Amino acid sequence: MTTTALVVAVVGLLIAFAFTATPAANMARVRRFMATGLGLILLLAAVHHFRAILPPFVVPLILAYLLDPILDRLEHEGFSRVRAILLVYVVVMLLLGVATVVVVPPLTKQVGDLVSPIMAEGGIDVETIQGMIENQEKLRKGLSKTLLSAGVPAAWVERLEDNYAQLRINERLQSALRWIAEQLQRTAMWLAGQVSGLLWLLLLPITLYYFMRDFDPLRRRLYFLVPPDKRIAVAGLAGSINDALGRYLRGYALLSLMVGIVLTTILLILTPIFDFKYGLFLGLLAGSTYFIPYIGSFTSVLLAVLAIYFTGGHSLVEAGVAWLILQGVNSLFDNVISPRVIGGSVGLHPLLVMFALLAGGADFGLLGVILATPVAVCIKIVLEYFVPRLAAPIPADETPEAVLPRVSPEGEGEPPAPQPSEDIDVGLDATMVELPEGKDSE
After folding, report:
1. pLDDT: is 53 or 312 the higher one?
2. pLDDT score recorded for residue 368
3. What is the pLDDT of residue 313?
4. What are phi and psi for residue 226, nearest 5 degrees?
5. How far apart are CA 143 and CA 157, in angstroms?
């Protein structure tokens, strides 16, 4: 409530300032701008208020947007819209059927093996955590033996062990593992409670059908609502957004599928070599989270390395080799394949992407994290359309003083005007300067 009141107060002050500081000649333009701004604020407030029921409408809308080019292509080949939708449904059902038969049984077993220790009767599985502590102790003793065999003096090794004991690593690690297990238990319980309440999954095929059927009429209706004298400008802006957003969503959908297939295959190949568990689950998790910038690839690699170490041979060498392989695959996709599929960067600074992810997650949860970057891309395009200087490059011959005026050290007097060099063409409208001696002015 406090945040809402603060936002309302700030908006009210901005409106009051705009109406008092604007000349009468520009008042009509200010009113239109204010009406648009208030409309956007009300729209955002409505979205925030109804965010709990948005998934059954937002998810099928995104899917319909991704599938619309396929439906248009089928219509171009002679299919009716309804027949094209039914064909897409049949293909999707066949793929889901194959996945249910081939992927779901082993995936369910791996997830059950992963969750069962966490959801053990009586709360946290202490034996699992104690086993992790013992593995860490074995690692410490093995390191001491390695140092002694390498010729390190025994006194130095004993001193290192004393310093290690003073750090109380075991106690701290045990506390950290308990906290992680508690969080995983809470997450698993929350998911178990949510699955029973996600009735919107039953609505997904129905809402998806209507969105796919009416996608083009809905787009034409929105275009018709625009005043005729603004349609060309709106069409240009909408085209820019559609190009960037479509390239991003369809590109990352394809990339996520490719990453999931490649990493799942690699992890399944490494499973008998490193003798670890959860390869299928971790590979599918990597593919389904790849589209989340920075967080997705980092989390998938980290979880895979931890799984290889704790459920495998507890070897740092194996974990290091796995990290190199998985990180190498992610780097290959990020730097080589992704630019060719998506067509380059979305043009957002990494700090803006991180801010968008945090803001989306704070207000809309997982759905907000998923939609954070596409929404940020749309906002960036709109801002650059109305404020072109945000995207305009600074000319290479622009002096720093022209961008940021220089101030004298004493803070007094006017800053010296920059002198044009001889290789700069001074136009007729430029400030007249005194020519150097030896040159005649015309």
Report:
1. 53
2. 78
3. 67
4. -75, 135
5. 10
Radius of gyration over every alpha carbon of the chain, rounded to an integer in angstroms? 30
Q: What is the pLDDT of residues 243-255, one digit of tens each?
A: 888 888 888 888 8
Answer whether residue 373 shows pLDDT above 60: yes
For the question of whether the overall pTM of this predicted structure is more than 0.70, the answer is no
- The ranges assigned to domains in the chain are 81-224
Q: Alpha-carbon distance 384 to 379, whole Å?
A: 9
When the pLDDT of each residue in the chain is averaged and rounded to a whole number, the result is 74
Q: Is residue 192 over pLDDT 60?
A: no
Residue 426 has pLDDT above 50, yes or no: no
Q: Alpha-carbon distance 151 to 399, whole Å?
A: 61
